[in-house]
Amino acid sequence: MTQKEKTSKVMESFENDLEDRCVDFFVRNDGTFGFEEYRRDHEEGGRWSKVGQFSGTRFSSLEAAKASAKYLVPWLPSSSW
After folding, report:
1. Beta bridge partners of 25
2. Is residue 81 included in any domain, yes or no?
3. What's this model's pTM, rounded to 2 decimal places?
4. pLDDT-based confidence at 1, cuts 50/70/90?
5. Is residue 21 classed as helix, strand or coil in its secondary structure?
6. Would the N or C end of the chain have less CB density within 10 A of its end CB?
């Protein structure tokens, strides 16, 4: 179990149409929210790998995390939610 799994819970996850990128939105035990971008490598058995450096940023709401992700993750369609 990673440190993130111990201290946060994924609230929503969005994948692109090719299913090789995703963004997870999570809430931490302290009530703050965050997000992270991942890439799936089919050559490596379909394992997800972190590609962004966003998970350390804290937001006061899920909506604020989503607004930031819309700006920072170009492939993420705002119509996802």
Report:
1. 12, 35
2. no
3. 0.84
4. very low
5. strand
6. N
